[in-house]
Structures are given as structure tokens and as C-alpha cells.
Sequence to fold (255 residues):
Amino acid sequence: MALLACGCEPAAAAHLERGAQYLAALQRPDGGWPPRASVDQSTWVTALAVLVLHERLPGEAVAKAVRWLLEQSGEESRFFRRLRMWLLGLGGAHAEGEGWPWFPETAAWVSPTVFTVLALEMVKERFPASELEARTRAGRRFLWSRRCQDGGWNHGSTKVLGYDAGSYPETTGQALLAMRGEQSARLPEALAAAEGHLRTCRSSGGLSWLRLGLAAHARPPARPAASEPPWRGLMDVALWLLADQAAAGTSAFWS
Fold:
């Protein structure tokens, strides 16, 4: 994603093609992707593969991937689960929307919901189906219902042992990415939470996700003052490049 987004130099073209071919070859017969070749199950990483490959795969392969994503939902979205939660008096806000899980047949969480919403938004023009629009709206409702008391997001639990849980930099930035274009009275508080995290965050990944989330709402922060962010691996470097590109006005996460 970072190489594609930043317009890789000719010397990197072969590496980019190698990566794309590797990913394309991992698509499973059900349309999804596993997290690695030795895993025989499609998971949430299907959304990431669609974000990277949607313009490089044949239309049929993309359509199968989109269908797989549309067929997934968190177990709490199912009727009997909702009924059980209602009988326990645990309905209300936590029954809103329809998110996506890390693995099929499990509960929905913030990050996989974010990336699936982004993937479906990216391919919406190629598949002008009302179902895509309905699911992305439901995904955003799920995300709003999982917002923490401080205005941001954590992985998905707004309360722990009966107490309000705090938000995290990474998931707050990710959720704001998925909220691009949203018109909600709740958005200013969420943006303020992201800006608050930005002032105190000390991880490269957290800073990058916050910068991406704020840039999605035309509020790109200035590049952090540190000349060298605390990169700890390839993921940190790639995210930093994506955040720099978003701050300049374009992003691999939206068309």
C-alpha cells in the first residue's frame, strides 16, 4: 500500500509486482484471504487485500472477495444473540449497527470493521449495489456505538468491569478514517479526542493512525517535531509514509 500510494520509483516496480502477485495467489476459493499461506481460513485481512488489489485483480476475483466480506458479521448481530442480550438487559447502544469480526463466527471489533468499511467504499463504484451502501452505513453505526466516553475508540469494549474504558491512539485514528464524510454531531468530540492523543502519543504506529484519521477530515496535523519517529519495523515505516501522503492531500484509504 505504501509503495502504491507514494508512487514508487522504477527501481521498486519489480518488488511491488512481486508483492501483488504473492497476495493475488493467496486468494481462497471462497473469495477471501488468509493471514498467511499455511492458514486454511479466510479472515479479516480480506479487507486489506481488497484495498491493495482492487485495481489489479480481474473483476470476478474482486466480486468474490466483496461477496465474502458482505457475508461476514459479528456474532452479536445474529437474532438469537440479540434476543439473549435483550433478555439480560444488555441491549440498547451495543445492539446498534453491524460490524465485522477478526475471524468468522466471532464477535465484531473496531479495527476489522474499519478496514472492511474502507474496502467496500473503495470498490463501491465498481459494484453499485445498494447492499454495499447498507452495510457500510451499518458498519459506521456499529463504530459509533463502540465509541468510548472520552470521545475516541479502543478495540471495542466501552466498559471494563463496569467502569468506562478509555480510548487508544491507534483505534481512534482508524475509526476516524472510516468516518470520512460523516455528518454527525458526535464528530467534533471524536476529532478532539484524536488531537488529544496526538499530543501525548509516543509510538510511531499510533501517531501515523492519528494523522491518517485527522487527514480524512481535512484536519491534517503538522508533522511531529521529532526528526526520526521511533520506527520499530516495516509496518511503522509503511504507516508513516501513508500518513505523510495523506497529510499532502491524497490517501490509499480513500479514492
User: Anything to note?
Assistant: DSSP finds eleven helices and four strands in the chain.
